[in-house]
Design brief:
Elements (H helix, E strand, L loop, with lengths): L9 E5 L3 H12 L5 E5 L15 H4 L14 H4 L2 E4 L4 E5 L4 E4 L3 E4 L2 E4 L3 E3 L12 E2 L4 H13 L2 E5 L3 H12 L3 E6 L6 H18 L3 E4 L3 E6 L3 E6 L4 E3 L2 E4 L3 E3 L2 H5 L8 E3 L10 E3 L4 E5 L4 E3 L4 H15 L11 E6 L2 E7 L6 E5 L7 E7 L2 E8 L5 H9 L6 H5 L5 H8 L1
Parallel strand pairs: 1-2, 1-7, 2-3, 7-19, 9-16, 10-11, 10-16, 11-12, 18-20
Antiparallel strand pairs: 4-5, 5-6, 8-17, 13-14, 14-15, 20-21, 22-23, 23-26, 24-25, 25-26
Helix pairs in contact: 1-8, 9-11
The protein binds flavin-adenine dinucleotide.
Length: 414
């Protein structure tokens, strides 16, 4: 098509966050000249969420550092960014979306990038004020103010959000207790060896750890004052932060009749079961050709990288999303990157001593490297990803030998 002639197609993106914003950016960088409508129900332009439990929560990083694009970007690129606007329906029979219950916008292709929402506590007292969740910038602003005046913060859940909030709250000088149903924090994702590592990190930083126990009740007047554990112990609390997982925001997809199973099901091109409707980011349970299974990844890098791939596919390409999973976490002085996906494993190997807090952990299953995690060791994540993606077996003695460069091992295996 002559680029001077505007494309007649209209691409509507539901969810103005990382996946949605990167998709909009890519539609323009690929030369699309038709309408791009990016709709989000939050009042601020797209931003990245990782700082919300780290520097932004602690008041050390400004909002400007979190935004995906400069303020002028959307206007300059003729992206119709509509904030504080809820998409209330998608009609795949007429190819229209409904906005705020009334206005209808036709689409040639629609992208669902609606993300995920925090799972709510379901115990008595969960409604009390001072019980908080963390997903949005507004949540982080409120939580920062609460922690600043709190004597005691109780974090429910020892997953990534719970661990990072506990670390930030300690760094803000609050007294912190963590309650986790599993025997160790992060055990579900990392297993016992690394769970023990993070337990010790938090304990060393003064977090009171209550592991292997759930909660039965939150008590207080209008404001939360106590957390009652399932074994009857009672913890004092001015603020309770619940990090008990998220659920994909699939309401729209469900109502539109899209196939759903732990998120919106997509193929490797991020196309859903309904023509011209795509999904990306935290909401998408996408077929991964290398892993040979579907995965729904609640991680920054998936939103960042699926956005551009899905945009190309909305334009007609058939590009598979096949990147190796990557995520990172910062807690106190411990930074880590994780590459790959260990769902099942029979061996965990270490290069370096975890006690030194500078090491790399490798997960192997039947001799195959399935994931690696570098802790306070940098510039190796790419090599680990290459090793994970390579079909052959890696020599475990070389993996653990600090004298063998991971980059050379990766070159050999690629
Ligand atoms: C506090 C926090 C810290 C994190 N830290 C890390 C980290 O260290 N490392 C890492 O890898 N990942 C981290 N993550 C995860 C990462 O931020 C997410 O994977 C990423 O935000 C997913 O992006 P997304 O665009 O798919 O969805 P989201 O960021 O959830 O955005 C979806 C957007 O769609 C909007 N929306 C939903 N439904 C509608 C509708 N009907 N109409 C209009 N708008 C709608 C939502 O309000 C939201 O703005 C963190 C997440 C949080 C909350």
């Amino acid at each position: 098509m002559d680029p001077a002639v505007s494309d007649e197609r209209i691409f509507v993106i539901v969810g103005a966050s990382l996946a949605g914003a990167k998709a909009a950016e890519t539609l323009r960088s690929e030369g699309f000249t038709g309408r791009v409508v990016l709709i989000g129900d939050e009042p601020v332009r797209p931003y990245e969420r990782p700082p919300l439990s780290k520097g932004y929560l602690r008041g050390e990083a400004a909002a400007d550092e979190a935004f995906v694009h400069d303020e002028g970007f959307y206007l300059e690129h003729d992206i119709e960014l509509r904030l504080s606007t809820e998409v209330t329906g998608i009609d795949p029979t007429t190819n229209e979306i409904t906005v705020d219950g009334e206005e209808r916008i036709p689409y040639s292709a629609a992208l669902l990038a609606t993300g995920a929402a925090p799972r709510q506590l379901k115990v008595p007292g969960a409604h009390l004020s001072g019980v908080r969740y963390l997903r949005t910038m507004a949540d982080a602003d409120q939580l920062r103010a609460s922690i600043a005046t709190a004597n005691r913060v109780v974090v429910i859940g020892g997953g990534w959000i719970g661990c990072e909030v506990a670390a930030s709250a300690r760094q803000m000088n609050a007294e912190v207790a963590m309650v986790e149903m599993a025997e160790l924090p992060l055990e579900r994702v990392l297993g016992p060896e690394l769970g023990r590592f993070y337990r010790d990190v938090h304990a060393d930083h003064g977090v009171e750890m209550h592991l292997g126990v759930g909660i039965s009740e939150l008590r207080g007047g209008s404001q939360v004052e106590e957390v009652v554990l399932a074994d009857g112990r009672v913890l004092a609390a001015d603020v309770v932060v619940a990090g008990v997982g998220v659920t994909p925001r699939t309401d729209l997809a469900q109502q539109a009749g899209l196939a759903i199973d732990n998120g919106v099901i997509t193929n490797e091109w991020l196309a859903t079961s309904v023509p011209n409707v795509f999904a990306a980011g935290d909401v998408a349970n996408a077929w991964h050709p290398i892993l040979d299974r579907r995965v729904r990844l609640e991680h920054w890098s998936s939103a960042l990288n699926q956005g551009p791939v899905v945009a190309r596919n909305m334009l007609g390409a058939k590009a598979a999303y096949e990147r190796i999973l990557y995520f990172f976490s910062d807690q106190y002085e411990i930074g880590m990157e994780y590459s790959g996906l260990a769902v099942e494993w029979d061996q965990v190997l270490f290069r370096g001593d975890p006690a030194s807090r500078e090491f790399i952990a490798f997960w192997l299953n039947s001799g195959r490297l399935v994931a690696g995690m570098n802790v306070n060791v940098w510039d190796v994540a790419e090599s680990i990803a290459t090793l994970v993606a390579s079909p052959g077996h890696v020599d475990p003695t070389k993996l653990v030998d600090p004298d063998v460069e991971l980059s050379s091992l990766a070159r050999e295996s690629a």
